[in-house]
């Protein structure tokens, strides 16, 4: 595992296939079983969400303990809900117990989660990201904190050296460049594939600003996937799951920046007027197909391979219509016997 303190990483990430958890049943036992099944099928990673329900930083060591080689990542831990000292001490435990197998991903999350769920102010997200990373680098290097920033303060905390790489989630240019500049990897989510070249361009710009080899920055993406013959039903499942996402300021601005200004405006106005049908309808079939991976096993495999060849290193398969039949078909389509990158 590359040393996170090395700003000039030269290791080139390999192409990896991963599965997103928690499991469809949302239980700890189901998630452990799903992780073991994924490892048996040849998946290399499990990536957890940390957005309510099962706590990712509690579930991660359970999955590490019940598997042998899987890398366990989190996409993402909201930077507003835990202090740098809490994060650094947690990372230290996991790195000591499972060296090289844990990847924490940090992200700003959204207004709905931070302000709505947690009752915390969603303010200065890029500044907060830079400050939390500065503090984490200090703490994980074994140095005593003496930091007073715009959003964070810490004085007198120290712990042992922890060599855990930290990935950062990003959507638009400023954060994409910041993530590549100060993080060890970049996490993407819910992007139209037509926008991927300019997304990757900003990642390269940020890496170069930090004098990194851009090819050394691992790019990770959760890929919303449904292996099915019923594309109409799968598109409806995508709309049901994500039209509300694209109504939030963060994702709405992202969709517009990706080139879908009309759809973003329609979603924003539909949500504001409480017209959920209008909001969902703004995600046209063409737009859904540009974001999600829907179709036969061979169709989904071809699209995922295109992303890998274009510069996304780790493909996190996320089945968004998890009936038993579809979940099994999607899981098996990306196992080692049927798929290679």
From TrEMBL:
Source superkingdom: Bacteria
Which SUPFAM superfamilies does UniProt cross-reference here? Answer: Bacterial luciferase-like
Q: Which NCBIfam families match?
A: F420_Rv3093c
Where in the numbering of this chain does the Luciferase-like domain appear? 27-313
Q: Where are the coiled-coil regions?
A: none
Q: Does the keyword Oxidoreductase apply?
A: yes
Report a single Gene Ontology molecular function.
oxidoreductase activity, acting on paired donors, with incorporation or reduction of molecular oxygen
Keyword Oxidoreductase in the entry? The reply is yes
Give the Enzyme Commission number.
1.-.-.-
Q: Which UniProt keywords apply?
A: Oxidoreductase
Under InterPro entries, the record lists:
F420-G6PD/mer (IPR050564), F420_Rv3093c (IPR022526), Luciferase-like_dom (IPR011251), Luciferase-like_sf (IPR036661)
Give the protein name, as stated in the record. Answer: LLM class F420-dependent oxidoreductase
């Amino acid at each position: 595992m590359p040393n996170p303190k090395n700003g000039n990483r030269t290791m080139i990430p390999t192409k990896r296939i991963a599965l997103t958890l928690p499991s469809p049943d949302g239980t700890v036992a189901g998630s452990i079983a799903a992780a073991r099944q994924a490892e048996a099928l040849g998946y290399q990673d499990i990536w957890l969400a940390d957005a309510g329900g099962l706590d990712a930083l509690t579930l991660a060591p359970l999955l590490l303990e019940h598997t042998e080689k899987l890398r366990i990542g989190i996409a993402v831990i909201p930077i507003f809900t835990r202090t740098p000292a809490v994060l650094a001490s947690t990372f230290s435990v996991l790195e000591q117990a499972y060296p090289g197998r844990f990847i924490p991903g940090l992200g700003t999350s959204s207004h709905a989660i931070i302000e709505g769920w947690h009752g915390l102010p969603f303010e200065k997200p890029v500044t907060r990201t830079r400050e939390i990373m500065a503090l984490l680098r200090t703490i994980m290097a074994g140095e005593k904190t003496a930091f007073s920033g715009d959003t964070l303060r810490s004085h007198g905390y120290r712990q042992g050296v922890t060599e855990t790489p930290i990935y950062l989630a990003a959507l638009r240019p400023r954060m994409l460049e910041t993530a590549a500049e100060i993080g060890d990897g970049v996490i993407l989510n819910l992007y139209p594939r037509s926008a991927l070249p300019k997304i990757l361009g900003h990642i390269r710009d940020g890496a170069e600003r930090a004098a990194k080899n851009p090819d050394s920055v691992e790019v990770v993406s959760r890929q919303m996937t449904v292996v099915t013959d019923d594309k109409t039903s799968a598109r409806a499942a995508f709309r049901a799951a994500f039209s509300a996402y694209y109504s939030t300021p963060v994702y709405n601005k992202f969709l517009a920046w990706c080139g879908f200004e009309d759809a973003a405006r329609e979603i924003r106005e539909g949500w504001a007027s409480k017209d959920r049908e209008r909001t969902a309808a703004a995600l046209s079939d063409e737009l859904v197909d540009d974001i999600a991976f829907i179709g036969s096993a061979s169709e989904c495999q071809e699209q995922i391979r295109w992303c890998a060849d274009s510069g996304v290193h780790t493909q996190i398969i996320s089945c968004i219509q998890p009936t038993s039949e579809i979940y099994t078909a999607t899981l098996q389509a990306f196992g080692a016997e049927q798929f290679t990158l």
